[in-house]
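Q: Got a minute? One more chain.
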Amino acid sequence: METAPATLQFPGRCDEVAQIQERAGREALTAGERDLLTKLYEEAYSEQSCASEVMRLLTRSFSREPIPQYYRYANLHVYSWFLDLHPTEPVAGAVLALEATLADLDAVERRAAPRLTEADNTEERLRRLDVLREHVRQLRVETGGDTTGGEIIDRSRDDDLARWQASVLTRCSGFLASGDHHEHMFLRAVQACELAFYLIRYFTVRARMAIGRDDELAKALMAQLTQYAELPNHIFHVLKTLTPELFLVFRDATGEASAVQSLNYHMMELVIYGYDARKVEAYTKFDHLYELTVPPLRSVRPLRDAVLEAGVPALTEGFAEVERTLLTWRGRHYGFGRRYLPGMEGSGGTEGAGYLRRFVHKDNLVPEPITTAPGLDLLGFAFR
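A: Always. Here it is, folded:
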């Protein structure tokens, strides 16, 4: 679609389909409604037209395809669609997706505030959300330039087509499993983290490639990587306004939608640290993660090795900062699991907090034979 519709209202039956899923959460859908959504997806998929595009986005989670539960839940196909709208500016596209996601969460929280109590932590959540959104605005989007996320975001607000695309992104990706308000916080945090993992991987790969070419841009890319590596910590700070009591209200409704299934997360760690054989147990639980256990992905050269070999102080210091930042995040992730799921199994079939604890530190990995893997796409958003 090259021009925006006259209104942000979804066309035709699309609005009805969205409302069906918004009404009480996807877990409350009847068998008949699920069958209808599957049928509508298949019709829209076979049509493959611009007119059916929104319907495909709304209903893909009900496809008969073998889509991992995590991806059905998180609606990451909608994010892939949005990023594909920005093929020459992937960082700008991801920053716009982040802002749209967080702005939608902000609006949801503000609408609900009058009926919530102090125990719902709305006021503190909004404060932390403001800090996160300001960090996104300060992100350097242009390598070696001055363009910030804020400039990209502000320009998009005056663009009718960009506003329509952001509206499609947030509505088609915002369906809860339960009817509980606080699941909005959880779902949007999952989606924001996916974008963060993707962006960190993007700058990691570009920095490693620049180091291999002895390109001066390597230092600028490393500086950007240190900034983007802060995103997961900021996101988790907002997520922690969701108390264990609030989390457990909707947790069962999310089913087996565990982030252990996330390709973006595992690929981020792969390009930073190298292959981690301790993860094989988790990888073999899910068919779509198998590709991470064999070359060429298993044998991709990590940034850690490239920085060590280069011996450039600015790169060494920058990478050390990235490592410290991500170590902090992994520690917080483990702390989240220990506090929110004490003694409970993780939704991906792991032992929960105990699984997370094993991967907090990354200083004991066995080097793999390296492959250059020409043509291997490590710069794209990963989903199934």
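A: DSSP finds 18 helices and no strands in the chain.
Q: Perfect, thanks.
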